[in-house]
Design a protein that fits this description.
- By secondary structure, the protein is mostly helical.
- It has one domain: Growth Hormone, Chain: A, CATH 1.20.1250.20.
- The protein is built from 20 helices and no strands.
- The longest helix is centred in the last third of the chain and has 58 residues.
- It is globular and about 60 Å long.
- The relative contact order is 0.15.
Length: 480
Amino acid sequence: MTLQTSTDTVGAGTTEAPPPGSLTPLGLFTVLLGASLSSIDFFIVNVALPSIERDLHASPATLEMVVAGYAVAYAVLLVLGGRLGDTFGRRRLFLWGVAAFGLTSLACGLAPGAWWLVGARVAQGAASALMLPQVLATIHATTRGERRAKAVALYGAMSGIGGLLGQALGGALVAADVLGTGWRAVFLINVPIAAAALLVGGRAVPDSRAERPARGDVLGTVLFAGALTALLLPLTEGRATGWPLWSVLLLVAAPLLGWAFGAVESRAERTGGSPLLPPSLLREPAVRKSLVLGLPIFLGFSGFMFGFAILLQQGLHYGALKAGLTVIPMGLTQIPASMLVPRLVRRWGSRAMPRAALVHATGLAVLGLTVLWTPWSALTPLALAPGLLLCGLGQGVQLALYYRVALAAVPAARAGAGSGLAATVQQSCLAAGVATLGSLFLALVPGSGMRDAFVIVLGVQLVGLLGLALLSLRLPRRLA
């Protein structure tokens, strides 16, 4: 299997330079640290939202933007970040991204008002879009065989555990109130970590780039960004602001912008240009099926983490620390499950995905029944742990397996474009998960109560996982 996150288009004549120096364990640790920072910061604010609301007098719509603004900017610019890494060198773009992430984290931590924080979070998402694409691309260019399989499994583990660690770490930092910083510490902690990654990365991360980088696709990039923003922004803000006219107009514009993007990319491919995402790739039935796998995985993951944090703090009145530590059982099973993926693939191939989906669905059912039948006062972290352990076990395999399944369906010559598309699906679904499942949960609370609203959202997620299991059965059994 060939793996990278940049968008190399064969029709445009883009080829990969000969492999540079091998990625050392220290170099792998450094790029995975960058990947984990971007994942952690998507979720770290969840347990800090009540403190941000009190301190900055933020409205519910603004709080949702603090979470989703980061994800929208991340998703919109991710493919462009991969293309820039091809052109200017992946180590350079990784280091630029790390530096920008540290500076924007500082801006978040020093935010004097709610909308300053939203703007800084959008900039932080853009920094992540520079940093993250270089991680898988560097792994692809500097590892081979079993070392690559293990590195990709580690990447999958970090992308999943980052969400859990984010909420646990966020709760600990808010509760500790380090030097009176309160919620600001969840952002300020990134600054020294980014500085350390910069110092080590310049020496430990080998450089790589495309030998003949594809030409820029300015119009395609603008249309792609416009289509995603027009879809995700009203989904995020529409409910909280009462669905104003601008949100409806954007939703109407989203498919039109998507159609225009497809037309521009098709023309570029026909004329030998370098489309941002080659349309012919999406005409591959196996590619479309594999990418659809990301919908229930990532929509469910971000929606669950957002809703669960609110349930714990506003429903059960857990403190930030207790709420953050409650998700630890998911991590206890998710990490080893992710690391078992290479072995599971050798034994079951793509059939590892439906098995993982069923385990995850069982965990959601156990968690839902626990919340539904246990007296509110008895819903302790220990009572919630069995369902969370099963969720982590299934989720760990899903998150680590997603890229491998998606890229196994992509022709080897187009692995770069395929991985860029797979990463974009991931980040778009993370943003949409908060906007859809998170908004559904908040909309149901006034009429149904916190308990029933959470169980209903778990039921929606469970249906998605059953769909994932059925769809996975139609994938080729053998994975490259």
